Amino acid sequence: MDNPLTATTLLFLAAAIGLCAKCKHPIYTVNMLNGKIYIVTSPDLVSAVNRNSKSLAFNPFIAQLGKRITGHDDATSQIVQHNLNGEQGSGYVVEVHDGLVAALSPGVHLENMIAPMLQKAITYIDDLDCSNEVDLFVWMRRMVTMCSTAAIYGPDNPFDTNSDYSDLFWDFDHDLNFLIIDVFPTFTAPKGNRARSILGAAFQQYFENYKPGQTQSSAMIQARHAANTKHGVSFWNQGRLEVGTLLGILANTIPSAFYMLVHIYSDPSLLKDIRAELETTAVSTAPPHAKRTLCILAMRDKCHLLHSTFQEMLRVHAHGAGSRFVREDTILDDQYLLKKGMVIQMPMAVMHSDPSIWGPDAASFHARRFLKPNESSRGLKANSPAYRPFGGGASMCPGRHFVALEVLALTACMVLRFDIVPVVGEWSVPPQRQESLATNVFPPEKDVRVKVSRRAGFEEVVWDFAMK
Questions:
Q1: 3-class SS letters over 328-341
Q2: What is the mean pLDDT of residues 436-457?
């Protein structure tokens, strides 16, 4: 039977998941004209799905949806699909994934990405004109886009040669659902289709001029280039594939950073406590007390309230769904038959908002929810199967450590240096607008216009950072 995740299915899937959120069953079957979709909402069944990673696989979605997202050609699709699940050693997808894991796990490669990202971010933060108003999300979007791409692709980064590419990427992201549906994208998604072509050509040129032994790009890009070269992916297709990679780098990171700032600045008590935690555990002062240094690794390891706030932000705002393809008939948890050729969806929003898991205040934001029990919380675990902002099992997002450290570091830089208040009225957390089926943390429905000022009592302080 054909895979049921077709263009028609994509239009109805979000609505079906929303209906499941109102019910209390562990698994649902949605019958489509060409198959079934199984919607799993129980953490125990999610764990069972993760344990059956060979028969319930994620990689087929890369092959199925990847071509719709990036528009690469049929020859590259064959490269991607060959040995997709590693039955005969490592195929292209397995090699790319393993390269990402090695490059983005905690260690020197990750630190070598965070340092240049922050170095460039400091220039944006230093240039933030504190006498004017800014639209917070738009400012964060431009800053994170330019700083992240510079850190990952190096000084030859296409975004550095043409800053208009930042806006083009968000045109691509905005139209992504129509590109995935893939019905006359020139007419149904004109801006996204044009952006994809322009960005693809820019990255084609980047890889045509790429010199592996001389590059200053990150270990992540070096590993991707090596896999592309080994498997014979053409430069044109390397450029197209890289446009898809940008989704993983940017699409979830920027809304996450935005909502971190909104939640912290909207709660004066939380803002005070996070500043105190940072200053106590992760900031060093040099005589004559005019220079202060944010120690990034100390922040990562010792600022538990900041990290709990980040985890809670993802619990509240990560609304995507994990996907699996049923490669063979599978009995899940000894009682549910999943038929070969069908699709599994595991919606984050349903599990992240379940009062039976998170308590009666599940709908509320509580920054201390993930602190250990002796740190004034219920001690809920971020590694619970009910907590899935980065997916789970064998397909857990390999970029999660980079995203977390990037968002935490940018948040710390902002809260230590600035007071931020809305231009009109009081702080409120704007609702999210679902734009992309490939995104977990959706952007806000509306921006927040804010007034930025140097933090009272710290106007003359010179700030720096160190990877220690």
A1: CCEEECCCEEECCC
A2: 90
